[in-house]
Specification:
Elements lengths: L6 E3 L5 H10 L4 E6 L9 E6 L3 E2 L5 H10 L12 E3 L1 H14 L12 H8 L4
Parallel strand pairs: 1-5
Antiparallel strand pairs: 2-3, 3-4
Length: about 120
């Protein structure tokens, strides 16, 4: 936000929701902190371009690394904003999943509550 980016915050979510939301909300990109089951120094970032496209491993990721190491940041005329759309995003995502018909959830990695929300008592 300090660099002028407007942030749509979808809250705690899985990687599949990041891909869906980046396209659904017409974002110019998406980013997620991942590997929360590891110690903090082993966490990583998943980054997407518009349309939920991956950054090119040969050019996009090295460019991001260079910008971070050299502290190359935009100097915006105004600061960006943060909009909490977690409730709206979860509701729309559940509706999308339900529209697909039968769903299957692997609940060992913390999906249990989300699975219940999608399937109700049919889980």
């Amino acid at each position: 936000m300090d660099a002028g980016a407007d942030v749509l915050d979808i809250g705690l979510s899985g990687t599949e929701e990041l891909y869906w939301a980046t396209t659904e909300f017409a974002a110019c990109g998406g980013i997620e902190v991942t590997a929360s089951h590891n110690p903090i120094n082993y966490n990583g970032l998943k980054m997407l371009k518009a349309g939920s496209k991956r950054l090119d491993p040969a050019s996009g990721l090295p460019a991001v690394r260079t910008w971070a190491e050299e502290k190359v940041f935009a100097t915006p005329s105004t600061k960006g904003s943060r909009k909490d759309i977690a409730s709206e995003a979860k509701s729309a995502y559940v509706t999308k999943l339900q529209s697909l018909g039968r769903n299957c959830f692997e609940t060992a990695k913390g999906c249990g509550e989300f699975g219940k929300r999608c399937c109700g008592s049919n889980i």
